UniProtKB/TrEMBL annotation:
Residues 11-346 form the Enoyl reductase (ER) domain. CDD domains: FDH_like_ADH2 (cd08286). It comes from Dendrothele bispora (strain CBS 962.96). Keywords: Metal-binding, Oxidoreductase, Zinc. One of its GO terms (molecular function) is oxidoreductase activity. Its cofactor is Zn(2+). SMART domains: PKS_ER. It comes from the Eukaryota. This is L-iditol 2-dehydrogenase. The keyword Metal-binding applies. Belongs to the zinc-containing alcohol dehydrogenase family.
């Protein structure tokens, strides 16, 4: 039996590199991909904290990556061994009710499975179910693989859950709460729609500076005067779109304090505890509140945008690591603020 190295979850607070059997084709729709690059997501940290009970002890983590097809099942026609591919964070059968409605995040045979309910991409090899609709060609001219890794998850999450759900219009006012990789992805993609004002709100000065360098018109260090600062910028109106990219009750309530009449709150954050909706003051404001799990349906569109040079998602990567140092990468990413980390990339080459 062929073996490989893999990063394995061993219960709350514990991940170890182990030798595991190399995956094999199980169904005609499968592909086996040899990883070239992967990354660590905030969701992986949630698993490590024990916040995702559906992820069992012994699971290989990771749901993002770029690699080379090693083998394919008999039903896979679009990819062949040797093809370089982007692995979508969401597995899509493309035929169930939810996939046909554009919501493969709720696919009856897929969704968020990699690194969750099946073994993921933080390993030398990974099995990709429904490869025809869950892989994308990485043959993208003039774009390096680090940038392509960001198209697996971070960039479509910011675009779909933030920018598109936020209904950003030309000339509108927009605020993003949370300057991590997903919040910055929302900030980058919001600029496709030419808002007049684009505010980043965060506690971390380094992330605020990064946001300004990536197109934010204003930055606000979160604190007791945050609402006042937003109102001063917007002439007392509030913002037309506010995107929550933190995932805690305090920031979701901040959204409600700064959204304008007729505005939209788009939630990107992963919330583990209840957050209040203050209908006593919102009921008459003609608001829209939208939630979404990334569907990764915009990956083909984002590939074209990145290839055209409209945005460079590689700016989100601050710390590269070899796979042999993945435990250190977890420690570094787990203390992102102290280490000035946005996104890490794990190299297998």
């Amino acid at each position: 039996m062929s073996m490989m190295n893999a990063l394995v979850y061993r219960g709350p607070g514990q991940v170890v590199v182990e030798q595991r059997p190399k995956p094999t084709i199980q169904l005609p729709t499968d592909a086996i991909v040899r990883l070239q690059k992967t990354t660590i997501c905030g969701t992986d940290l949630h698993i490590l904290k024990g916040d995702v009970p559906t992820c069992p002890n012994g699971r290989i983590l990771g749901h993002e990556g770029v690699g080379v097809v090693e083998s394919v099942g008999s039903s896979v026609a679009s990819f062949k061994p040797g093809d370089e591919v982007i692995i979508a964070c969401i597995t899509s059968c493309a035929t169930c009710e939810f996939c046909r409605r554009g919501m493969p995040s709720h696919c009856k045979e897929g969704g968020w499975t990699l690194g969750h309910t099946i073994d993921g991409t933080q390993a030398e090899y990974v099995r990709i179910p429904h490869a025809e609709s869950s892989l994308h060609s990485a043959n993208v001219k003039g774009v390096n693989k680090e940038a392509l890794v960001m198209i697996s998850d971070a960039l479509p999450t910011g675009f779909e859950c933030g920018t598109l759900n936020g209904n950003i219009q030309p000339g509108s006012t927009v605020a993003v709460i949370g300057g991590g990789p997903v919040g910055l992805s929302a900030l980058l993609t919001a600029q496709f729609y030419s808002p007049s004002t684009l505010i980043m709100i965060d506690l971390d000065e380094n992330r605020l500076a990064t946001a300004k360098s990536l197109g934010a018109t204003h930055s606000i260090k979160s604190g007791p005067d945050t609402v006042k600062a937003v109102m001063e910028i917007t002439g007392g109106r509030g913002v037309d779109t506010v995107m929550e990219a933190v995932g805690i009750p305090k920031t979701f309530e901040l959204c409600q304090d700064i959204v304008a009449v007729g505005g939209t709150i788009a939630n990107l954050g992963v919330h583990g505890t209840k957050a209040d909706i203050h209908l006593e003051k919102l009921w008459s404001m003609n608001l829209t509140i939208r939630t979404r799990l990334v569907d990764a349906v915009t990956i083909p569109r984002l590939i074209k945008i990145v290839e055209a040079g409209r945005i460079d998602p590689q700016v989100l990567i601050t710390h590269p690591f070899k796979f042999s140092d993945i435990s250190q990468a977890y420690s570094t990413f787990g203390a992102a603020a102290q280490n000035n980390v946005l996104k890490v990339v794990i190299n297998f080459d």
